[in-house]
Write a structure and sequence with these properties.
homodimer; 401 residues; Alkaline Phosphatase, subunit A; 2 domains; 8-stranded mixed sheet
Amino acid sequence: MHDLIKKLRESNGSKIVLLVADGLGGLPIEPGGKTELETAKTPNLDRLATEGTVGLSTPVAPGITPGSGPGHLGLFGYDPVVHDIGRGVLEALGVGVEVGPRDIAIRGNFCTIDADGRVTDRRAGRIPTETCERLVAKLRAHVKIEGVETLIEPVREYRLVVRFRGDGLGEDVCDTDPLQTGLATIAPTAGSPGSEKTARVAEEFLKQAQAILHDEQPANYLMMRGFAAFPKIETMAEVYGLRAVAVAVYPMYRGLARLVGMTVAEPGKTIADQIDVVKSLWDQYDFFFIHYKYTDSTGEDGDFARKVGVIEALDVEIPKLVALRPDVFIVTGDHSTPSRMKSHSFHPVPTLLWAPATSRPDLATTFGERACLNGGLGQFLAKHLMPIALAHAGRLQKFGA
Amino acid sequence: MHDLIKKLRESNGSKIVLLVADGLGGLPIEPGGKTELETAKTPNLDRLATEGTVGLSTPVAPGITPGSGPGHLGLFGYDPVVHDIGRGVLEALGVGVEVGPRDIAIRGNFCTIDADGRVTDRRAGRIPTETCERLVAKLRAHVKIEGVETLIEPVREYRLVVRFRGDGLGEDVCDTDPLQTGLATIAPTAGSPGSEKTARVAEEFLKQAQAILHDEQPANYLMMRGFAAFPKIETMAEVYGLRAVAVAVYPMYRGLARLVGMTVAEPGKTIADQIDVVKSLWDQYDFFFIHYKYTDSTGEDGDFARKVGVIEALDVEIPKLVALRPDVFIVTGDHSTPSRMKSHSFHPVPTLLWAPATSRPDLATTFGERACLNGGLGQFLAKHLMPIALAHAGRLQKFGA
């Protein structure tokens, strides 16, 4: 599909806005009740739904609940099953660690070993985050490996991220976690010749870490897993010919945008700030990815009423984006996060596409899960949304004569 | 999919009619208004929509605007991305030049070169079509190449079609257009050994053309591009076991039908004539492709009212086809041509399938874009329509036990 797009694409100065309300889709609490989005008063989104075209997006495949990585890759037009991003890279992006083509990112976790080197607690008693931060600082102060640059970043409790930067680093190295207590950790071993340097570097890192941590309790060692290189993925400029910018507050989404080659702007703190940033960059880019976190976090908290509230707060901001006169304005989510489930879910995601010049109106007059059932976009795979957006923006030539 | 169909298909004497109203889908002119098809009074199509099953067809892929070639291949059940028909072949079909397995079809255009052979006008001042016809006649009278049969046909203004017929002709020859003025034309060069004869023939053709045209102004030379062989494509008889006949007035559609092995009937001039032809051939074929051009041409003209008119004129003829008692009767388009856009578009195409013995009725009681949103066919890829039609006609056995 990307090959076809590359052949057909053309530039015409049009502007596309992709507003991702993370975890937008929901469920009713009561049988027969309304979802969060259906409950929220959203006059501005309803107007766009009436004038535009709506539908339901399946992020990865029917029945698949996506994490943030696959969810966003789909919306950016990449098949999330084909473009599997390594766990180490996702963990790094999540804490704001940049990952580039010379890097290997690794998930680490502090653990407890006994005098014989056997693991007695794989999570080091779930040490508090402050301890994690102190131990990471200690590692930073003392670890020194020739030939690579090492970056260490705390995540939460017993979890950390390690990034090696250097030449000739492959990602094909086994996890060192034995997955049960009573066993020694596994030596990091390369699965293919191109990763031997990484394995040697990791071995040296673990040796130094053991020495540095040996008088700590309970976190007197660490394990590494999910060795991952920067994924080979074509940029949005290469595939779509778009100058794309991300205006996202949280590190994970900035990182995901960077993976597909977007410029990452300083977003400010609130959605109002983000929209101001979009406004200030309007002439410099063709494609604007705006990420709104709170529909997901309130869903994860199981707080139906607060999820309704943050949807309403988002709706209030919509006219500012419409006032910029985008050629295509999309509002969707990377997945559903029903507050009833307190987690990401597999349910299709309400999606609205408003394109004043090219939208074919459908039967929807509000923006919500049930209204989207009658939508002109039908039920579609998220990876098809970008070609549909480009088409509505007049950026795809006719295929064949 | 074709392999599966070939295993499951069986003949049962049933009849399938595929009526393609070219560019059928549309858009409202006014926000909230009706499309052309929704505006048209179509009591006969509405009756079929009520009794049958409707849906929205995506010709190639979401967001892709198809030309007539890919649009029709999809409806005939061939993946238009896999079966990419070369530009030269499509141009030839469009002016009624037959293309067969021993042929290479090439798009030509007259141009102006200076005394040093540099292109000064790539379109020869857009000479009128009459001049094009005179120059083509002059070329026909004098070009003579050993070992191949040459056919030259005017298209419009500076454009013409050249067809070489002979043995051992490959299509892998570069365009001779340098794409900018001030440069010499490029010699036709084979990209692989199987196309060397074509390159030599083209070189000789261009040499002779230059001598024949040298005292013309401004069209004193020509360039060639889009070298294309007859596509290797299984016929509808081979895939579906159908005796298929095309009743189409315009050359392009007759040619496309011939590509997939249909017999091409003499259609008369009007849709009423075409239906008479179908009636006269009813016992000799299983599958009838009827092409109606005017829904597209009025859309291309941007004439909403006339597009409504030609839809109503088509509706009047529908009972005659129903009276033939087809087992499956499909009305669809190869793409949308909204008069608001004056061009083909990417919007899904209203589709109706009426099969008295097997249709499962849905919620639609009229035939139109919005009504099709609730249709039993859902939103589907055009290439899936043929298996659905065969199934409704009882021509596919059970798969597996």
